[in-house]
Give the backbone structure.
Amino acid sequence: MNTKISFWLIPSAAYRPFFQEMINSLANAHDAPRFEPHVTIYSENYTADESVDQLIETAVKNVPGFMLDIDQISYTDLYTKTLFVQFHPSAILTQISETLRRNSAHPSNYVLNPHLSLIYQHLDQAIQTKLATELVIPYTQVFFDEVRAISTPEPVRSREDVEKWQTLSVRRLE
């Protein structure tokens, strides 16, 4: 199994507990793994010779915390996009993602699609539809103020894969 490095945008302390509780509740109800709320900014193959600290530092230099606008709750057949909060595109987020790609030793073809997953589990479409229509997000925007680099197995297909995630670097946005 290959290892990827994923760069995550983390909700601020004002928003994180709400999303963590929703993730935990859905995980308990559907026998799914728990994970931290995040928006993946960029992902690539991991090589030990690359400084993730330097990559993050360069990508977020002089970038303050910022809001992302919520579009909708949606779902797919993909394990890592079972049910998620879709955000509208963001110029700041695109800039960070492209800076990570540009400075990467091994750039990937990762396509930025800002979303925050709420559950990783193979669910029946009827359950996904029901959850997507019944869940209420009390916000129209979410503030993000931290970027993390996470090592993950590739691909992520199970609870065991999620439980192997490791934080490599953390950087607060000023």
In short: The chain has a mean pLDDT of 95. The helical segments are 16-29, 52-60, 91-103, 125-134, 159-163.
